[in-house]
Amino acid sequence: MEFLNLVKLRQSSRAYEEKAVEREKIELVLEAGRLSPSANNAQSWTFVVANDTEIKNRVADAAYKMGGAFVRQAPVVIALVAEKPLLISRLGAALKKIDFTSLDMGIAAAHICLQAAETGLGTCMLESFDEKKVKTALNIPDNRRIALLITLGYPADKQREKKRKAFDELVRWNRY
Amino acid sequence: MEFLNLVKLRQSSRAYEEKAVEREKIELVLEAGRLSPSANNAQSWTFVVANDTEIKNRVADAAYKMGGAFVRQAPVVIALVAEKPLLISRLGAALKKIDFTSLDMGIAAAHICLQAAETGLGTCMLESFDEKKVKTALNIPDNRRIALLITLGYPADKQREKKRKAFDELVRWNRY
Fold first, then answer.
1. Which candidate, A19, B50, B86, B108, has a CA 20 to 30 Å from the CA of B101?
2. pTM (2 decimals)?
3. Which domains does chain A have, with CATH numbers?
């Protein structure tokens, strides 16, 4: 598939079929995340997969935003956990007020969601959830941060048209 | 191309051919960025393209880290400028200490670099640079943040093997 078509295919799926995701497909999706680049190749992340129904439901119940009902439908939820950033990233962040770890997490999340779309799976990135409850459900240490959750499953929603700002509104040439 | 092969193909290119990039190829790469998802569909970014040699060189000279010499070689540099995040993102960031705008910027950067790789172009994400100098070169307002720069051009470096942590080191199942 052409990459731009894959970009168009990927959408936030908020309805899922009642069907488990095969282990090898979950692994393929995570492999695309594993291979993603990061500042200074820090790879300061851990991907925690909740695919045990009981544990996954505990995570789903902690995703209070946007209803959370569809999170319960999804057979898999992946937590992207930020490990301590490398010193150089922390220095950079302090200097520039840019959060390199969050930036890296975004790259990995994009890889994961695009690979899922190619594999016929739906995803939704969730940035609002009760972090403490998710940590408890997945046994994640208190001093780690969960950057985001990604639901994963066979999508049951229709393909939608993307609503985006116009190209000329976003892009400037040689001068802001 | 299979997505995972595209992921493997994309690498940080630090050598470029002396060859301009066609306008339509630059636009294709930016289109993949335009279509990328963002928290609450905020799209709080502007992509500033430096492809005028003189202006691009001023940007290159502000990219002090990693030599910066290869940035001068690249015929194009794209600055990803963070606009003010939506209130909901700012509230979320304050609550969770996660920088949603940086996370979104990472997603857009991944889309841009993957599209470039498919188009036969090389990229390198640069997170260390003299932000003030880049702002001056591109006339970017003082109150904006530049999340990162991306070089773009025909790559002159060889394909390298990716060095990444082992799968089992990164991935946990149902328990951290």
1. B50
2. 0.94
3. 11-158 (3.40.109.10)
Among candidates B163, B173, B38, which has minimal Cα distance to A109? B38
Global ipTM: 0.93
Residues in B closer than 8 angstroms to A99, CB to CB, are 98-99, 102
pLDDT in tens, chain B (176 residues): 999 999 999 999 999 999 999 999 999 999 999 999 999 899 999 999 999 999 999 999 998 655 578 999 999 999 999 997 655 565 666 665 567 788 999 999 999 999 999 999 999 999 889 999 999 999 999 989 899 999 999 999 999 999 999 999 999 999 99
| A56 neighbors A75 (Cβ within 8 angstroms) | yes
Q: Does A98 contact B145 at a Cβ distance shorter than 8 Å? A: yes
Q: Please tell me the distance from the alpha carbon of residue B5 to that of residue A169, in angstroms, as a whole number.
A: 32
Nearest CB neighbour to A145, from listed B48, B52, B97: B97
State the nearest Cα–Cα gap between A173 and chain B, in angstroms: 5
